[in-house]
Amino acid sequence: MLQSRSPCVPSTSVWNGYDLLKHQPVVGGPKIVQRRIRYIAVDSSLTFDDTHSKQDAGLGRRQMLSLAVGASALLVSRAHAADLKAVVDGGVTVLVPTSTASSLGPVEKKALENNKRIQTQNNVPPDFPAFVRQGYDIKILADDYVVDDKGLIYKDIELGSGKQPVDGEEVTFDYVAYNENGARIDSSYNKGRPASTRLGINGLIPGFEMGIKSMQVGGKRRIVVSPELGPPVGPSTFFSAKQCEVFDVQLRAVRQCRRRQVAMFSDVVCE
Questions:
Q1: Is the sign of the CA dihedral 216, 222, 250, 173 positive or negative?
Q2: Which terminal Cβ of the chain has fewer Cβ within 10 Å, N or C?
Q3: What is the pTM for the complete model shown?
Q4: Between vectors from CA 107 to CA 125 and to CA 178, what angle results, nearest 5°?
Q5: CATH number of the domain at 93-257, out of 3.10.50.40, 2.30.170.40, 3.40.640.10, 3.40.50.1000?
């Protein structure tokens, strides 16, 4: 669960025949600037496409980057105007109520049936969300969960009454981590002691840290980390695919930390 860095992968790397990741032209590739945007309502009742393209072999790299920024600004402005969640192609995660299961298509219904069957075999806890995926697009079926303004999905099982942590402080917590099928992939209980780490040092999965920061000591919360807020993926990491992860967390303690200087050496003390 602990990660040393957060993912930072562009949604698209090729602009006007130039690969922005490899910093080199795409040999033989068409020089077409194209950004396809899908707007999806949180209740999954509306979907429409808006494709913008411009063919111009004379665009420079700075102009291409300007187009990318402009397209992103267009995405945000239209999303706020229509009160929709806007995402760039490559995978989107939406939360929908369980009542929408009856309106799913045959393929999605089959996927939901398989997901629930495996979750039952894994003895998932009550109110565990169901997952329906088509490629990298994921529908999460659950009731009484909250989606914050950053896209984090969570449900408070028990509200805490203690301190709420901030960056630089050390948090101590117990957790159980599940995959989409409800199989346990990690747990502090199996290790016999709670986990501890400082916030704000990129020591946790981004979505998990976001969920911890808005808790109070004593609280229990279920956090659903979508791929957009999840860890980096690839052969050099533990994670090999864009998967949702579910964490049941109990925040045990928060401690303030300070840097201590001893002669030529220094360390961080939390107490």
A1: negative
A2: C
A3: 0.66
A4: 25
A5: 3.10.50.40
